[in-house]
């Protein structure tokens, strides 16, 4: 019945948004003086996941955004998932987030990338219909209990005066809106300002303030509070988006047709199929740059402010300009992607550019299918402030400001999936903090979200951070297929951000998989018996040992279906999990090897380092270099400290030793005080 | 006393400083044990011991014990039955066999409570783990432990640097660079080939690189332990029939009466060891009991030990009494071949020493000396007389060149392994590369896992490789978009 319930979710009709939205949220007057548990600032991928997660955990939540109708907008590419990013989507879904289900609703072209490279690195991906995606997110938020949405611009973050006992430490109390002097109080605030924090847009030689084309940046007051009031270190990052092309003006017969999977695989563990029918899917097209593209870039360099400022740019190539300049004389791929079922635009992935619009047109016309193409909206660059994420705890809370959480591009990341993952985790923790529950962390040994957050808070960023599978040490254990087993029970039992419907479903799956593996291991036959049962499989008979069904399933040519038809009585009831069982069997030996290392790391991560240590005056033997690193990064656990470059084993032991002594002293002191206290009365 | 694995490190150290015992050991044998009192909760925290000074040329021996049972070892071997000695204080103790309570030696005992990093680079985080476990046992009482650890890791680092700055270091660094590039290219293929232009040829190049590297590392591992010999000494064993003059040869070689010499057959009943420097190469020379069937239990045990030594030897000097040789050269060769078979499992690594040459008539002596050279099936043959020193110089030249070959002349040829620890990591590295080959066509994620393991294993010698370093290579070699 859970499964039926799950597939119902997709069939649910989306409400008439506009009639619903206007009365609820355009007027903010009635909110003044209202006390919320959590306020989320921003309605992008991070903000929507944060607001929904906070509400799921049980917090009265308010989402504030500049324009209600842009909630859930895809500002850049019309796609979700991919290699590494797809893992994040699966994990967000396993924690009951929105983006997986939204992708299943809005997807118009589904494919599993890396299909031939091993299930651990499969990358579920979909092209999206922008309108459908937005509709789904807005509808979902509207139907979320305890969640209110309001249109407005946040002028100021309200914080207490610094705590005299802990200088520099504040507590968040709410926000003040720009229009009028509305103050809305909250115990937790999640900032997901994306590219809007002191954002400026670049096209050619013109620069204008803004967070996205057509949208003003967030107010200067907010940046001021973060930097001046809270003393947070910030940096500046850049990104860009390509021009949108009028579809009818492109000769797609000159590009290579790229079809989706014939059977779309949904992102969500709750969905058995996608909203879009297999035959309704739209194709993508692949084309290549020509030497003419490189020529146009070179000729227009002096007219291109954004690229000229590329002094300390990222290591990868964020724009077509950087591609042809760093890898000259080559042909570069350009994907032409649909923007939606009814959209008459194409998104040219790989052609982010910031040159003046007339030159953008010249450039794209150097690419054969776009010889006569028209630009609907020119590409542009964005520069924005980010807060150095090493100032955050693994709960994504600003270490020095109780109740202030940050998620998404404000933390120096790039990408929808990275933003959604942080949003969910920050929102859940903001709610827990507001409801006086301890914050929770995810380890890099159990999830890509954990890898993402650990990399951010313990290493910081020098370029927009994007998820790659190569960042995950335990990639063979952190697979897209098992995200539910890894995270859903924890999300329900420890975090509170997972509905009981999903929780029950994950338990059913877990138990079934366990039963199936047990049944496979109970099949214990000699090689010759196996040969009789499965004549097509090349089983070496030289080994006289007995083999289990699980051993057999590890063979390349053996599928669970084959075993189930050979042993229908014990296996046929598990057919629904055929693919997952095959993957489990193949990866089991490697995951077992990982396990010991994972347990060791988790032990070290359970040892927290106090956040208020003054590393420079610490009376222990540490080199200046080590002190500097520790002070800069302020690792929250011993595990995080060991992973830092430049931290020696000796430093770790000294640190550990010091922490233990101090803890003991503190405890003794506390006991003494308590005794004195008791004596007085 | 063989190390279970090449490891040291831990919490206490017992150093035993002994007056040399009679059997040809270095003038001072300093046993030192480092014991680590981590609780047994950790399955992998087994108690480990090793001779941490090298064999051969060292004047003192240091034995280190590390692990949860090291306190027990200290109690039952150094007589601390009531309580453990004060930390970091050297005490002169009798070291006894815990079962027979026989006194084995006397030496200095040092006890270091707390966790000390070993002379192998700590596995990532392992150090902390041990430290943590040790902390439960009162690490906090030991002030300055960190400094000690620091000094040790510094010494370790410098030692590693010295080793790594040479030809061997360059070799490992080259492997490391190539491996990193392999990993970067596999990772790029996994993470980016679906969106970006990463040609299929990339993986084919990785295939070639991986199999080249695997072959090179395996070849290097087959260097017949030359580097380790250089560090620990070449095991040279003197073997042969009773009363052939084996002990006399030992005494000649070490230029002092290390072994008792008498005309009575079967004088030497146990293995007598002595360390010597042979033209700059460390040699651990052992004299063994004469090989014969005996009804004497002690002598039979001596013969058993002698045969055991011969099997473990890097080089065996088979000593033959020249007087027992048939006078005809042809028959002499056959006799020697037969004799060798009774002494040695194989004749690859031995020198034939015909002793008591002074007892032969001059004519026969010359005939043997010239004609036995180059006879097929016989190793190098030298006639000597321990009595008159005749032929001894020529014999030493042959011995020296054999030892030099075994050590690998550092001035020529491929660099050799100097540490068993390196060997272990390299073996793991080669095995991991085999994993790449195994999964290459079926599951690239598992194949890449093999390259990752290989990089980690080699990284234990050349330094840890982080994900960022791999990304640096990816972004340098491939055009990766936003």
UniProtKB/TrEMBL annotation, chain A:
Output the InterPro entries linked to this UniProt entry: FAD/NAD-bd_sf, GIDA_C_N, MnmG, MnmG-rel, MnmG_C, MnmG_C_subdom, MnmG_C_subdom_sf, MnmG_N
Alphabetically ordered keywords of this record: FAD, Flavoprotein, tRNA processing
- Tell me yes or no: is Flavoprotein among this UniProt entry's keywords: yes
Q: Name one Pfam family in it.
A: SAM_GIDA_C
Q: Which family does it belong to?
A: Belongs to the MnmG family.
Q: Record's Gene Ontology CC terms?
A: cytosol; mitochondrion
The molecular function GO annotations come to: flavin adenine dinucleotide binding
- Write down the required cofactor(s): FAD
Gene name as annotated = MTO1
What this protein is called in its record is tRNA uridine 5-carboxymethylaminomethyl modification enzyme C-terminal subdomain domain-containing protein
Q: Which GO terms describe its biological process?
A: mitochondrial tRNA wobble uridine modification; tRNA methylation
Q: Which Gene3D superfamilies does this one have?
A: FAD/NAD(P)-binding domain, GidA associated domain, C-terminal subdomain
Where do the tRNA uridine 5-carboxymethylaminomethyl modification enzyme C-terminal subdomain domain residues begin and end? 585-657
Automatic annotation (TrEMBL), chain B:
- Extract the GO molecular function terms from the UniProt entry: GTP binding; GTPase activity
**Alphabetized Gene3D superfamilies for the sequence:** P-loop containing nucleotide triphosphate hydrolases, Probable tRNA modification gtpase trme, domain 1, tRNA modification GTPase MnmE domain 2
Supply the CDD domains for this chain: trmE (cd04164), TrmE_N (cd14858)
**Keywords on this record?**
GTP-binding, Hydrolase, Nucleotide-binding, tRNA processing
PROSITE patterns from the entry? G_TRME (PS51709)
Residue ranges occupied by any TrmE-type G domain in the UniProt entry: 233-404
One Pfam family, short name: MMR_HSR1
Q: Which family does it belong to?
A: Belongs to the TRAFAC class TrmE-Era-EngA-EngB-Septin-like GTPase superfamily. TrmE GTPase family.
Q: Which PANTHER family match?
A: TRNA MODIFICATION GTPASE GTPBP3, TRNA MODIFICATION GTPASE GTPBP3, MITOCHONDRIAL
Q: What is this protein called?
A: TrmE-type G domain-containing protein
Could you read off the lineage of the organism from its UniProt record? Eukaryota, Metazoa, Chordata, Craniata, Vertebrata
């Amino acid at each position: 019945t859970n499964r039926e319930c799950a597939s119902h979710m997709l069939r649910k009709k989306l409400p008439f948004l506009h009639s619903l939205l206007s009365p609820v949220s355009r007027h903010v007057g009635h909110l003044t003086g209202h006390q919320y548990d959590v306020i989320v600032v921003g309605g992008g991928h991070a903000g929507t996941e944060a607001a929904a997660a906070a509400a799921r955990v049980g917090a009265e939540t308010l989402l504030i955004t500049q324009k209600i109708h842009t909630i859930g907008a895809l500002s850049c590419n019309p796609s979700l998932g991919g290699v590494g990013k797809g893992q994040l989507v699966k994990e967000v879904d396993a924690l009951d987030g929105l983006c997986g289900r939204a992708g299943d609703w809005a997807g118009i072209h589904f494919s599993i990338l890396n299909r031939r490279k091993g299930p651990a690195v499969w990358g579920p991906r979909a092209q999206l219909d922008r309108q459908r995606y937005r509709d789904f997110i807005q509808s979902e938020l509207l139907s979320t209990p305890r969640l209110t949405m309001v249109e407005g611009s946040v002028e100021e973050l309200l914080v207490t005066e610094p705590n005299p006992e802990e200088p520099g430490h504040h507590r968040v109390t709410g926000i003040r809106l720009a229009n009028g002097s509305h103050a809305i109080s909250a115990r937790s605030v999640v900032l997901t300002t994306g590219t809007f924090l002191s954002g400026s847009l670049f096209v050619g030689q013109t620069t204008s303030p803004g967070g996205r084309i057509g949208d003003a940046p967030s107010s200067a007051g907010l940046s001021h509070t973060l930097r001046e009031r809270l003393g947070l270190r910030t940096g500046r990052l850049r990104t860009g988006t390509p021009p949108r092309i009028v579809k009818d003006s492109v000769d797609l017969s000159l590009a290579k047709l790229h079809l989706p999977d014939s059977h779309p695989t949904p992102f969500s563990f709750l969905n058995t199929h996608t909203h879009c029918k297999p035959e309704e899917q739209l194709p993508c097209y692949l084309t290549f740059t020509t030497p003419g593209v490189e020529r146009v870039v070179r000729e227009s360099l002096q007219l291109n402010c954004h690229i000229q400022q590329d002094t300390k740019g990222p290591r990868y190539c964020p724009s077509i300009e950087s591609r042809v300049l760093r890898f000259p004389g080559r042909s570069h791929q350009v994907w032409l992607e649909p923007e939606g079922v009814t959209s008459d635009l194409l998104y040219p992935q790989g052609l982010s550019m910031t040159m003046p619009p007339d030159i953008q047109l010249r450039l794209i016309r150097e690419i054969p299918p776009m010889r006569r193409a028209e630009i609907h909206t020119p590409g542009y660059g964005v520069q924005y402030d980010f807060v150095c994420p090493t100032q955050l705890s693994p709960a994504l809370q600003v270490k020095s400001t109780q109740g202030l959480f940050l998620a998404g591009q404000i933390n120096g990341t790039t990408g929808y999936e990275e933003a959604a993952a942080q949003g969910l985790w920050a929102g859940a923790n903001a709610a827990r903090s507001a409801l006086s529950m301890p914050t929770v962390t995810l380890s890099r040994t159990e999830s890509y979200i954990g890898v993402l957050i650990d990399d951010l808070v313990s290493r910081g960023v020098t370029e927009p951070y994007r998820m790659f599978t190569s960042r995950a040490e335990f990639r063979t254990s952190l697979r897209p297929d098992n995200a539910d087993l890894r995270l859903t029970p924890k999300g329900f039992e420890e975090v509170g951000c997972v509905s009981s419907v999903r929780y029950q479903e994950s338990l059913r799956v877990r138990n079934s998989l366990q039963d199936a593996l047990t049944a496979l291991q109970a099949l214990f036959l000699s090689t010759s018996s196996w040969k009789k049962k499965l004549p097509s499989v090349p089983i070496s008979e030289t080994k006289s040992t007995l083999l289990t069904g699980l051993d057999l399933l590890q063979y390349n040519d053996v599928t669970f279906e084959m075993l189930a038809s050979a042993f229908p009585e014990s296996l046929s009831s598990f057919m629904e999990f055929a693919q997952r069982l095959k993957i489990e069997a193949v990866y089991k030996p490697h995951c077992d090897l990982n396990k010991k290392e994972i347990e060791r790391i988790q032990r070290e991560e359970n040892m927290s380092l106090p956040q208020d240590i003054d590393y420079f005056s610490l009376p222990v033997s540490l080199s200046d270099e080590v002190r500097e690193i520790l002070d800069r990064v302020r690792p929250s656990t011993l595990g995080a400290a060991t992973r830092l470059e430049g931290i020696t084993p000796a430093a770790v032991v000294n640190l550990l030793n010091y922490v233990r002594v101090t803890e003991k002293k503190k405890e003794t002191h506390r006991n003494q005080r308590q005794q004195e206290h008791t004596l007085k009365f | 006393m063989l190390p279970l694995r090449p490891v040291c490190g831990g919490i206490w150290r017992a150093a035993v400083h002994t007056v040399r015992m009679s059997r040809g050991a270095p003038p001072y044998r300093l046993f030192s044990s480092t014991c680590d009192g981590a609780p047994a909760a950790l399955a992998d925290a087994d108690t480990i011991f090793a001779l941490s000074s090298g064999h051969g040329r060292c004047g003192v021996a240091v034995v280190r014990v590390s692990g949860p049972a090291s306190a027990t070892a200290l109690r039952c071997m150094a007589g601390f039955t009531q309580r453990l000695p004060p930390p970091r204080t050297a005490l002169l103790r009798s070291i006894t066999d815990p079962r027979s309570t026989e006194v084995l030696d006397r030496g200095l005992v040092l006890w270091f409570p707390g966790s000390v990093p070993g002379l192998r680079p700590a596995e990532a985080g392992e150090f902390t783990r041990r430290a943590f476990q040790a902390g439960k046992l009162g690490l906090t009482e030991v002030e300055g432990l960190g400094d000690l650890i620091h000094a040790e890791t510094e010494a370790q680092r410098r030692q590693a640097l010295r080793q790594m700055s040479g030809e061997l270091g360059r070799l490992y660094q080259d492997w490391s660079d190539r491996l990193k590039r392999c990993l970067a290219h596999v990772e790029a293929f996994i993470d980016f080939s679906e969106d970006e232009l990463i040609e299929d040829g990339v993986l084919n190049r990785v295939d070639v690189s991986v199999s080249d590297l695997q072959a090179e590392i395996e070849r290097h591992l087959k260097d017949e332990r030359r580097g380790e010999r250089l560090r620990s000494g070449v095991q040279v064993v003197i073997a042969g029939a009773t009363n052939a003059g084996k002990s006399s040869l030992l005494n000649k070689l070490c230029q002092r009466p290390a072994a008792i010499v008498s005309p009575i057959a079967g004088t030497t009943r146990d293995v007598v060891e002595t360390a010597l420097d042979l033209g700059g190469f460390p040699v651990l020379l052992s004299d063994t009991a004469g090989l014969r069937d005996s009804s004497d239990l002690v002598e039979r045990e001596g013969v058993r030990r002698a045969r055991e030594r011969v099997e473990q030897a890097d080089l065996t000097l088979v000593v033959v009494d020249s007087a027992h040789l048939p006078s005809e050269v042809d028959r002499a060769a056959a006799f020697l071949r037969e004799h060798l078979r009774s002494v040695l499992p194989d004749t690859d690594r031995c020198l034939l020493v015909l002793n008591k040459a002074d007892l032969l008539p001059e004519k026969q002596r010359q005939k043997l000396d010239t004609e036995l050279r180059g006879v097929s099936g016989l190793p190098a043959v030298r006639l000597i007389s321990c009595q008159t020193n005749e032929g001894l110089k020529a014999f030493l030249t042959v011995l020296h060149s054999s030892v030099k070959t075994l050590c690998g002349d550092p001035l020529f040829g491929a660099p050799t392994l100097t540490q068993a620890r390196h060997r272990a990591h390299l073996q793991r590295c080669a095995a991991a590369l085999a994993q790449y080959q195994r999964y290459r066509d079926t599951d690239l994620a598992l194949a890449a896992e093999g390259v990752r393991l290989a990089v980690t294993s080699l990284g234990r010698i050349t330094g840890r490789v982080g994900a960022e370093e791999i990304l640096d290579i990816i972004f340098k070699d491939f055009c990766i978009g936003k």
